[in-house]
Amino acid sequence: MKFKKNDVVTVEIQDMGHDGEGIGKAEGYTLFIKDAVIGDLVEAKVMKAGKNYGYARLLKVLRPSKDRAEPPCPCARACGGCQLQALSYEKQLEFKEKKVRGNLERIGGFSDFVIEKVIGMEEPWRYRNKAQYPVGKDKDGKIITGFYAGRTHSIIPNRDCLLGAEVNEEILNRVLAYMEENHTEPYDESTGKGLVRHILIRYGFKTGEIMVCLIINGRKLPGAEKLTAALREIPGMTGISLNVNTKRNNVILGEEVIPLWGQEYITDYIGDVKYQISPLSFYQVNPVQTEKLYETALEYAGLTGKETVWDLYCGIGTISLFLAKKAKKVYGVEIVPPAIEDARKNAAINGIENAEFYVGRAEDVLPEKYEKDGIFADVIVVDPPRKGCDEAVIQTMLKMRPEKIVYVSCDPATLARDLKKLCEEVYEVKRVAVCDMFPQSVHVETVALLTRNVV
Ligand code: SAH
After folding, report:
1. Which residue positions in the chain have pLDDT lower than 50?
2. Cα 361 to ligand 1 centre (Å)
3. Which residue in 447, 450, 444, 448 sits closest to 97, CA to CA?
4. In this structure, which residue's CA is closest to atom 1 in ligand 1?
5. Helix%, strand%, coil% for the chain, nearest 5
6. Of 12, 72, 92, 408, which is most buried by a Cβ count within 10 Å?
């Protein structure tokens, strides 16, 4: 161990880790330093020193990297949401490409693949259509809202997150003013007392429709009509509701929604497909990039109108309906029952009749349908959560042997793990694209096309 806690060191940052932290060496000893970017020369204080590497806190940038950007958000360093704001956008995209490539090489064991495109945003700000603001009190007892500091539950006050819609600030101002006037208590995690836990806002980028949902520790909001009156003045306001969550845990949303005013859903479009989105449904948060992501998936699927397609982990059927227009038949599978209700409704409002949906775990539904009904697919699209596909899904796909598998992934590590299994004998990686759905953060979305190389 070269250093001990509280030592101050000078470090040149040579690399960046998966979570966006700078990595450099001081006298040959590796240190991880949050908020330092590649190319910086920094002064840092050692916080934790292990045998082979340690963690240090950035004290001062002695010589900024040429790729350093001035974070436009005053909360960038304290807030847990954006890990890459101090890096130029161009370099952020390079970082993400490298992250995907590194995972495919190291975990997947692939070497001869090309990442054919990295789809970035022209304007990598204000792209989120959904925001969930926790509500609490500061040490003077004033009601605050903002975002959690990294890895904690203390709230950094901020009503104008630069990733969210501009209208969020006005909504938050009105909700907090209502709470002050009515002496409505924010929820306190440590005691389980108080009422208002979170404010959820959804905004339809193409329609301008807005939904506000207050997540409360109870079933009644005293003086709710005053809140709805204040919020209704905001142009675009479409629906106001309550969500009941009386559990003492970290999960944001409860199961019950109580409408207060207006519609229970907002409408938005991806391409020319129309979607109804209710407070509880999963919906991609970056609509501009989602369209590009789905177009890439559609291009990779190479549909001619004759294909049978399975869309596993389909959510509210967004990809399924996007593909249905170009396929003979699409089957979607999703674990959350209300999402499937939305998917069916969305198919109907778009007049799409060749999409069918099943509720259940992909790892149960697919093997069962295959064993019992001998189902067939020309193309299988998967878009699993971060943990990737269950082994049973991989094995059933290998038995079904569709001509193509389009893998949409939000975690390059599990993507690499799964592709390795699929490409042992039957498939090969044909095309890979990286899509930046979450600018300023370290998260990255990947689309990979696998084609069958044996009959
Ligand atoms: N393709 C959709 C949703 C992708 S997110 C879209 O683009 O909008 C992943 C989805 O997988 C979520 O809707 C989640 O509820 C669902 N899911 C998680 N585990 C699952 C499982 N074991 N089987 C089926 N669906 C699952």
Report:
1. none
2. 9
3. 444
4. 314
5. 25, 35, 40
6. 92
337 lines ligand 1 (CB under 6 A): no
pLDDT the model gives residue 203: 97
Cα dist from 130 to 164, 283, 357, whole Å: 7, 9, 25
Strands 427-435 and 445-452: antiparallel
Q: How far apart are CA 332 and CA 358, in angstroms?
A: 6
286 Cβ inside 6 Å of ligand 1:
no
Distance CA 380, CA 75 (A): 42
Which of 251, 313, 407 gets mutated to test ligand 1 (max ligand atoms within 8 A of its CB)? 313
Q: Which two tokens stand for residue 269?
A: 């479009």
**Structural domains of the chain, ranges and CATH numbers in brackets:** 8-68 (2.40.50.140), 93-122+286-452 (3.40.50.150), 130-270 (2.40.50.1070)
Strands 115-119 and 130-137, sheet pairing:
unpaired
Q: Read out DSSP for 126-172?
A: S--SEEEEEEEE-TTS-EEEEEEBTTS--EEE-S--TTS-THHHHHH
Q: Is 83 exposed, middle or buried (0-12, 13-18, 19+ CB in 10 A)?
A: buried
Residue 347 near ligand 1, beta carbon < 6 Å: no
CA of 410 to the centre of ligand 1 (A): 11
Question: Ligand 1 centre and the CA of 334: distance in Å?
Answer: 6
Q: Write out pLDDT tens, residues 82-114.
A: 999 999 999 999 999 999 999 999 999 999 999
What H or E segment, with its residue span, contains residue 418? helix 412-422
Name the residue type at position 438. F
Which residue minimizes the CA distance to atom 22 of ligand 1?
361
Separation of CA 249 and ligand 1 centre (Å): 22
